[in-house]
Write a structure and sequence with these properties.
The chain has about 280 residues and is of the alpha/beta class. It contains five helices and eleven strands, in the order αββαβαβαββαβββββ. The protein has a single domain, classed as 4-Layer Sandwich (Purple Acid Phosphatase, chain A, domain 2), CATH 3.60.21. The protein has a six-stranded mixed beta sheet with strand order 5-6-7-8-10-9. A five-stranded mixed beta sheet has the order 1-11-2-3-4, covered by helices on one side. The longest helix has 23 residues.
């Protein structure tokens, strides 16, 4: 009897991680809060809350339109000042069900924030068809910033928002984007792929990206076995500071290639930007 119990226990231990990774964690959803103090961030914008929704991959397993409804509701409940959509809206894995961009955009149009809802495109959006994704977003009034900058202002808070196009599939013209900025106000940039970060100049206070999904799998004491980055785990997830320049990489909400997440739960990343020298309050 004891031997049988040990066998069943061993089977349960062996099956628990794949069950969790393939059937439980990818279906979860949470808001995760971070505090970041970008260089030169002004007092007038202290406490600005930015919601980052990246790598939705709508249609992948556990990420249908019903999940997207939950994501929108969770984001709106957080009451952010600004919402940034970080690309890869369409399915990135053969499993699941294809969801057309117009159906995705129809749900995302329910998002609202005082300083707007803005988007960039990801590599999967380009592989599917960037014009179709752009047309769907245009139809619901969500602007896509591809190598373009816009001035954002509310009361005493004023900054530039710069969208830089995808590293793999588009021009990603950093210099051309910054050339559109006409004064010394701080710049908040967002793009899909964080591998652009080494080329980001100090003029940009904070760069926000997605793409990596945090590797989708994190193994304690080992790390992240697969990260779609030429830099390995360097820009895999979270707040990174290099040479005084700040990057935040969201782990995103969907799955790609393999529909698994293990110890990298899907999240709406909520950034509170502080006008002080403090670093992130949460890793």
């Amino acid at each position: 009897m004891r031997a049988r119990t040990l066998v069943f226990a061993a089977i349960a231990v062996a099956l628990a991680p794949p069950i969790w990774g393939f059937a439980i964690e990818p279906a979860t959803l949470r808001n995760e809060d971070y505090e970041i103090a970008p260089p030169d961030w002004p007092e007038g914008c202290d406490g600005l809350r930015v919601a980052v929704l990246s790598d939705l991959h709508v249609g992948s397993p556990w990420n249908g339109l019903d999940k997207l409804d939950r994501i929108v509701a969770l984001t709106q409940h957080a009451d952010p000042d600004l919402i940034l959509l970080g690309g890869d809206y369409v399915r990135g894995v053969r499993a699941g069900r294809f969801v057309p961009p117009n159906e995705i955009a129809a749900v995302l149009r329910q998002l609202s924030a005082p300083l707007g809802v803005w988007a960039v495109l990801g590599n999967h959006d380009w592989w599917f068809g960037a014009p179709s994704v752009r047309a769907a977003f245009d139809a619901v009034g969500i602007p896509i910033l591809e190598d373009s900058a816009t001035r954002v202002q509310r009361g005493a808070c004023s900054f530039w928002l710069a969208g830089i196009s995808d590293l793999w599939e588009s021009r990603h013209d950093i210099a051309g984007t910054l050339a559109q900025i006409t004064d010394s106000a701080p710049v908040l940039a967002f793009t899909h792929n964080p591998d652009l970060f080494p080329d980001i100049p100090a003029r940009i206070s904070l760069t926000i990206a997605g793409h990596t999904h945090g590797g989708q799998v994190y193994i304690p004491f080992w790390g992240r076995p697969v990260v779609p980055s030429r830099y390995g785990e360097r820009y895999a997830i979270g707040h990174v500071v290099e040479g005084g320049r700040h990057l935040f990489v969201s782990p995103g909400l969907g799955t790609s290639i393999i529909p698994v997440r293990f110890l990298v739960p899907p999240e709406v990343s909520l950034l509170t930007l502080r006008a002080s020298d403090a670093r992130t309050a949460r890793p």
